[in-house]
Amino acid sequence: MGLGWRGAGGTLRKRTEESWYLFMTLLLLCGFWKANTQTDDGKSVYFWETGPWGRCMGSECGPGGSQSRAVWCAHVDGWTTLHTNCDQGLRPSNQRNCFRVCDWHKDLYDWKLGAWNACVPVSARTFGAQRPFTCSGGEEGIQTREVGCILKADESPAEDAICEYFEPMPRLEQACLIPCPQDCVVSEYSPWTSCSKTCGMGLRNRVRSVLVPSLFGGAICPNLTEFNTCKPGPCTGPEGLYSLRVGPWSPCALQQTRTARQAKRRKGKGQGLRDRGGVKDPETRELIQKKRTRNRLNRQESPFWDIQVGYQTREVTCIHRNGSKVGRNLCTMRDLPLTIQSCVLPKDCQVTDWTEWSSCTKTCVDPEFPRGNRTRRRQVLQFLVGEGAECPPLEEAESCEPPGDGVPPCSTYTWRTTEWTDCRVDLLLSQQDRRRTNMTGLCGGGLQTREVYCVQANAELLKYLSDLKERDKAGQSQRQQKPSVPPLLSISFQITASRPMENQFCEGPIPNRSQLCQIPCPIDCEVSPWGAWGPCTFENCNDLTGKKGFKMRKRQITNEPTGGLGNCPHLVEAVPCDEPSCYNWKVVGLDKCIPDDEKQCGPGSQLAQVQCINSNGELVDRNLCSSSTAPQPMPCEVPCSRDCVLSDWTSWSTCSQTCSSKTIEGKQMRTRSILAYNAGEGGAMCPNSSSLQEVRNCNEHACTVYHWQTGPWGPCTEDPSTASLNTSAGVRASSDGQGLCSMGMQTRKVICVRVNVGQVPPKKCPDGPRPSSMRPCQLPCKKDCVTTPFSNWTDCSVTCDAAGNAMKKKQSRKRLIIQTPSNGGQECPEVLEEERECEVPKTCPGFRWKTHKWRKCQLVPWSFRRETPGAQETCGPGLQTRAVSCRQLDGTQGDISECLKFAKAMPTITQRCQLPCQDDCQLTNWSKFSSCTADCVGVRTRKRALIGRSKKKDKCKNTQMYPLSETQYCPCDKYNAQPVGKWSDCILPEEGRAESIMGMKVKGDIKECGQGYRYQAMACYDQDNRLVETSRCNSHGYIEEACIIPCPSDCKLSEWSNWSRCSKSCGSGVKVRSKWLREKPYNGGRPCPKLDHINQAQVYEVVPCQSDCNQYVWVAEPWSVWKVSNVDLKENCGEGVQTRKVRCMLNTVDGPSESVEDYLCDPEEMPLGARESRLPCPEDCVLNDWGPWSRCSLPCTRTNSRERTAYPLRSPSAGGECPETSDKEPCSLNLNCFNYFYNITDWSTCQLSPNAVCGSGIKTRMLDCVRSDGKSVDITFCEELKLEKKWQMNVSCVVECPVNCQLSEWSAWSECSQTCGLEGKMRRQRMVVQASQGDGRPCPSQIEQWKPCPVRPCYRWQYGPWSECRVENVVCGHGMRYRNLSCFVSDGSIGGEGGLVDEELCSNLEQVISGEKQIRLSEACVLPCPGECYLMEWSEWSACVSICVKGAGMDFGSVQVRSRAVLAQEPENLLQCPEQLWESQPCTGGECYEYKWFSSSRHNSTRPLTWCQRSDGLNVTGGCPAMNPPVDNSSCDPPCLMPKSFCSEAGACVCEEGFTEVLSPAGQLDQCAPIPILEIPTAEDKKGDVKTSRAINPTLPSAIQPGRSGRTWYLQPYGPDGKLKMWVYGVAAGAFVLLIFIVSMIYLACKKPKRPQRQRQQNNRLKPLTLAYDGDTDM
């Protein structure tokens, strides 16, 4: 195998090389042949090439420019060569003149765009091919247009480059869509009619109508009628061949008759009567004039009608059934119809010329609506008579602009408001809890309201312009009276308030009628605690003459109050004392005790360290205390080695009382303790325990405390000293009315008060701190009441009662208060609304037609009727006329044009009449039916009688032909009421409804809940189920039912709890208070505030608080006596224990005052209550207690240390030594050394005044001094370090006010949505005046309510159906058909047919049907004669159909169509039939349909087994694709139901062209598979691409296939028997050999060459695989 492969490979390689050499040889030959051909035909191989033209250059704009381009010589192979190789005579120019375009040319030149040409299919533009034969929806096309640059002035053409300089050339072509041809689509046939004859040969037919017309070149409509001969049976006698045919009436003609001549004579007689009228008395003349006017109207001598009665004739002929005329004697003669009758000579409506245009309705300048309307009218000269032309429009309008230059501006309107009312907090409180409305002293957020009204914004300007025009008309020169200031400014100061107008004049948003406001909360004065009593000092240290002295204590204002410091309590209290002094010595400390006589121990003295201070405790110069005795040296004792040793005295305790009386004395005490006992004998003894304590009196001054007390400031009154200045200043006005106009004075009472006693003489109090009793103030301006002028009177609309009388009404006008008075200003007027009676017109406006009596019946002149058989001269059918005039509702004469405009349709002025002949029976008109005694009981009758000679004629006495009475059963009207529609909304009763016409005042409290009523309409029906008035059922039209609108319940919380204690006893903590949820909201009540997340029923408020770290201090009593554990009775020394009491006490200014619970003090700071130590023995050294530790220097480091010291109180005996007197320890962070820093707390919640519910408040936070171990300490630790304070402690905030939603009152009920019927509704609305804010009550969802209208029957005039065409006494010809105008009642529902009722119920309705006032109750018609072929009546308009492609999104509009089919009665007359007709009209909203072929396998079905069906299920003809429709499948079993299949002539199912059959194992057709299409390119193709063509018939010759020039092969792998063809096996074998060849080549290319074994061992590494690219594009 390997040798075989290698041999094959070598052979293949050899053949490939031979092919390569052959290919190269062919190429060389081809190139040589080409070169020879280019030189042999005499053409040069060199030619000139040119580049593009450059930019037009030049010094001037216009045609004087020049442009150049490059020119070179090139070889045909594309390379450039020398110029000499090319022919110089053919060298193109490289320069030419051009038009230099400049910017200003843009205004001179522009593109001219031509119209788009017709849409051309894209396929028709490619190689001139034809349009494809199939179309799916629409074909893509291209339409072109011409575009050129022109000179605008004369539209002369210019170079395109000029216009392209400014704007690119517009596109020359665009895509378009050519709709597919739409074939005509017709409906299914109707059933076959019966045979046109009962015997002999006849026709039966069936018809269909057009559904979709033929469009866009589609197939025309097929025949709409199909005929079929029929022969019911042979005729027993001769067939009727002839028929009488009546022709149409001739036009109405007029002939001079005796009646017209008599009319002319009457005119002459009338003139004579008028001439003779002067001799009559006035009353007689007036009666004659009235009668003459009435007669003239009755004689039709009105100028608007010229009615002339003429005559018209018609022809009666005899017609053969083939349509030819024959002699009348061949027709069976019956009573011939009338051939002549009276008629009204038709007259066209004549009108006058147009009047001049009226003035423009817009007489002012309005930028938004600049144009108005103007009208012109014309009058009727002659109304139409008979069948004359209708009157043209009598009025026309056109838009116009106000004429002239000096047109004033139009009135503009704007909203104005009154001033805001005072801010009231109780309005907010009443929204939350009605019990809180009477609280006083409220502050914070509130509500204020105002009224809104509409005014004319430019009324003053228009008045000024009007006055200016009037002065110009009066001849006063405006130049002589030139105003000193501009006119607008001169009037603007006179404007006080504008007149209110109707609110509908104003547009735009309505200003708010309420707003939130703020009442500043008064800040209470807050003072610090009282300071300590100062020393006894003079009242005035500068004046020491008196001996009166006071001890004083003070407090400071910590929060400045509203209104100044006068509202604070007294800040100084004084106690009289003796021996006052301004400066005193203060003992700071004592020096070391020094024994006398320079001894080591024993009695001695110690000096006091003093400072000089003033009465306020401030350090002053020592010389100021020179008058005071300085403290003397104090005796002391230094114990000897064997003496008892005592500690130093403690400080004096706080005085027990602040003052002294006979029963109360203040006491202070101090103590000391034993440090070491004496040594038995020879040493000083220790004192007893009583000597270790000292007590002294303190605060010995009497408890008589005085202070100044002030009263409230009085009102600000005018200061007499500044009255003259205030007079001139008082005229100044303020824009807000709150200005300060003058200075005044306020006073208050100042008294001296003794505490707990009352007022005492002023001399008891020190004069220094006495408050002032008078201060200046500013007086507010007076503010007068300001009102608007009265509004215009409301309109007096005229309403009339049933009798036509005008009803009395009232009109009113109002004015509004826009500024309320204050500070003593002028009060408001009492009358704010006026009312008066309206002027009632004498007559109600309205017009009606008045008909006059009918004239005498006019016959056709006897000369024309003489030839008519049976005609008589004085009797027969005729015509009578009457006059019509226009009247006002009160009966007075009115203009005809008013009735044409406002009255109902004009009554008829002519009617047919009959003058009875002598042989005719004459009867009176029917009387009215007699009344019924009760419904459903008995009968009612009506009668008539014979008159004249008819009473004696026997034929007239025949009561069967001429009944004289009629009897009817009494109507049995039964009515039943039943509810209709839904229940209305629940509606509250309207009580005390306040309406404001001009202003928009809104009541703050509108009842919104409680018991109301809901309504359901009641309908009343009679026994025929026709709707009648509800009063027939004794109903007022409604069912009422009580209902409840639940009242909203707000969220209810408890009151605030008390504030908790501050969470920290030192520094900044928090305190909390809370509210508990008592009741949740429901029915739209005010929502609850945000509840606590954990406990959903509690609302917390947390604020920071500050606790004074020194408020509670530990106080330790002196150490107790030593308890020595190893007691040496002789020595009383050694190890022992001392104890003391430690208490937590409240710290005050004067020191610790009272004991409190220990938990209030800091446990870490608590002093030791016991200590162990060694009690010194006699002759031992005794030290005092250790002093305080020194402070560690910051920052804390181990290198720093602190120390404490002690000093010896008793020296040791000889040879003894004292212990160390100093102690030192290192500074350790957070042990004995601390860093300090500020800590800022979080912001508190927004804090309001106690009397405020919302509004402005303050958020606070606090500074805390924190030790480095996290403990809060007194703020002084940080202050001493002078740390930076960079925080803001207070910030303003706002608590949103809970404003309830405020609604306007309900509007008036609207008109009923329907004038009649069951579904009418009345609605009313209300507006949101103030939306809810904060936690206010939200707006209800219902801002519109409805209730049903009373049910009223809907009456309408309606045509009845047309009668059949009637031709008098004959078979065929021109006749008339009639219809009735009837009164129908319905319930107003869509599609409701209604019932026929008495015409009296429609008597108040204008006779208008579908908007047409012209009522047609009869029309001419033609009854075809036997044998005639004629057109049917128009079919109904078809449903609206969209011409579209379903799913493709293409729509070419909608259309509907109607048609007239042809009917024939005789087979031999079919060729004489007229053409069938159809007409179409555009419509909207058409449906888009698809059309598909359907087939059925039911052989016994009467329906064709193949049909076209529309997508809505309607079977049609046309519309389905014309390509290969399914044929009758009746010969194939089973039927061919597969797509693209049909039944062949051989009775087998086969596929259409382009598809191949795929058979099932049973040999039956399974599916039709598409055949792949392969195009073999020919020499004419420029490209050899393989393309797929679709929707092209492959059987067509290649020359006529659009867009194709090659041959198309169809590869059909299956033969007719369903087996594979032989060529398929050949192709498969070839493909297999080619695959083997490719695999071999890849193997040889990738195979590695053999290498020596040694080399393979040295380099045993894998090489990467590399592929060489040989340039083949298929890689």
Supply database-style keywords.
14 helices; 1675 residues; mainly beta; elongated; 4-stranded antiparallel β-sheet; disordered C terminus; 5-stranded mixed β-sheet
Could you characterize the architecture of this molecule?
This protein has 1675 residues and is mainly beta. A 5-stranded mixed beta sheet has the order 19-18-16-88-91, with no helix packed on it. Strands 61, 62, 63 and 64 form a 4-stranded antiparallel beta sheet that branches. 10% of the residues lie in helices and 30% in strands. The two termini are 30 Å apart. β89 and β90 (1395-1397) form a beta hairpin. The protein has 14 helices and 106 strands. The model is unreliable at 1-40, 127-132, 264-279, 476-495, 724-738, 992-1005, 1574-1610 and 1652-1675 (pLDDT under 50).
| Side-by-side strand order of the widest sheet | 19-18-16-88-91
Distance between the termini: 30 Å
Low-confidence stretches: 1-40, 127-132, 264-279, 476-495, 724-738, 992-1005, 1574-1610, 1652-1675
The structure class reads mainly beta
Shape: elongated
Largest sheet features: 5 strands, mixed
Percent range of helical residues = 10-25%
What's the tally of helices? Answer: 14
Mean pLDDT: 78
Compute the number of strand runs. 106
- Beta-strand percentage range: 25-35%
Radius of gyration: 63 Å
